[in-house]
Amino acid sequence: MAKPNKKGPVKTVDIYCKLCNQPLFKYRKAGKGALVKCFLERITKDYTVKPCICPNCEKQFARETLIRGTAAYKFIGGKVWFK
What we know:
Elements: E1 12-17, E2 23-28, E3 37-39, E4 43-46, E5 62-67, E6 70-75, E7 80-82
């Protein structure tokens, strides 16, 4: 399978924790669909201290995985929102 485009999209979105509204990432998102996964190379600003753990409420919001040979976070349903 093809790897995701490294340059990626120019549109950025802010990703927040659903429980406490803490900002988690600034991310270059492609397309207009739901937020299911997040490629690490497309994260422009990371507000987390530990990977996949909200810095404010200490809840896990994602799992680390490999998607098409590239490191990514796969979000747990209903744990994050974006705008």
